[in-house]
Backbone:
């Protein structure tokens, strides 16, 4: 029987590219996201290749997460890999100008949502045992500060530390945990972050060579298919044309 991957945020970007990559690799898919039409389109695209189960899900809703997991069809229950990918950034402006609601949305999605899904799937992942994986999508923003990152970067720092801490508790279960931390990648991320400013998104990704969603999907697939005895703790991936910058200094 084929292995099963459970992907949150499969309607766009890394999640959708990962669905396609795992389908090409023969894995069965459980695909979640809020935009049901997109899930249906993806299911129609991939169902000839592999079995695909879709579930409309807002990861912020713990009860809904539990229900989706409880109602998984028999053939989709024994999850081998959880890809905690659903997430977003908002308000790319100084902290002092941000609406509190935007901070809450990022925490609710990137922290609470990720924890909700992890908690609901831990029993089945532990039952799968050796070779099972939790792959959390963190970010370079979780490690490296920059202006306008405020709560977004802090949620991704949580993702990194939660991943490490999970490893400590799961050490004897065979379940691996990895924090994949991408740098700049062209997806709908900046469109969401700017609340629909296509020009801003085009500016950010223009005149350089960002990562593509497929680049990260390839890394996710690679990590999930490592030999059982190997755990990548953290995998930070940047475009070649991106690097760190100098410290900021305020001057008179
Ligand atoms: P996209 O905006 O293209 O995709 C985000 C996905 O998250 C969508 O499928 C969206 O689905 C889903 N999502 C958002 N909120 C929720 C929610 N409340 N419940 C369920 N699903 C949700 O962006 P990316 O593919 O770039 O982002 C994927 C992950 O990668 C995020 O965690 C992001 O922080 C991280 N990341 C992105 C980088 C980049 O430069 N692009 C770099 C580093 C990390 P829907 O709206 O249908 O619910
Ligand atoms: C997304 C990467 O640098 O835009 O997590 O914050 S960055």
Residues:
């Amino acid at each position: 029987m084929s292995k099963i991957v459970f992907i949150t945020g499969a309607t766009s970007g890394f999640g959708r590219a990962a669905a396609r990559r795992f389908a090409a690799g023969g894995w069965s898919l459980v695909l979640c996201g809020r935009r049901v039409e997109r899930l249906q389109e993806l299911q129609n695209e991939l169902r000839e290749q592999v079995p695909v189960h879709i579930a409309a899900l807002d990861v912020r809703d713990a009860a809904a997460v539990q229900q989706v997991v409880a109602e998984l069809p028999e053939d989709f229950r024994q999850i081998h890999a959880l890809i905690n990918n659903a997430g977003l950034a908002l308000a790319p402006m100084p902290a002092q100008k941000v609406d509190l609601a935007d901070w809450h949305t990022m925490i609710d999605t990137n922290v609470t949502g990720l924890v909700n899904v992890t908690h609901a799937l831990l029993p089945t992942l532990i039952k799968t045992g050796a070779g099972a994986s939790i792959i959390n999508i963190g970010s370079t923003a979780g490690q490296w500060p920059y202006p306008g990152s405020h709560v977004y970067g802090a949620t991704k720092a949580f993702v990194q530390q939660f991943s490490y801490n999970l490893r400590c508790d799961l050490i004897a279960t065979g379940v691996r945990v990895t924090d994949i931390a991408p740098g700049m990648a062209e997806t709908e991320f900046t469109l969401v972050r700017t609340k629909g400013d296509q020009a801003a998104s085009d500016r950010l990704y223009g005149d350089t060579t960002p990562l593509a969603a497929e680049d990260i999907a390839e890394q996710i697939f690679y990590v999930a298919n490592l030999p059982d005895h190997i755990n990548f703790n953290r995998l930070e991936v940047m475009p070649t044309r991106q690097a760190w910058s100098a410290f900021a200094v305020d001057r008179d």
Observations:
- The mean pLDDT is 98.
- Helices lie at 13-24, 36-46, 62-70, 100-128, 150-170, 189-193, 198-205, 213-224.
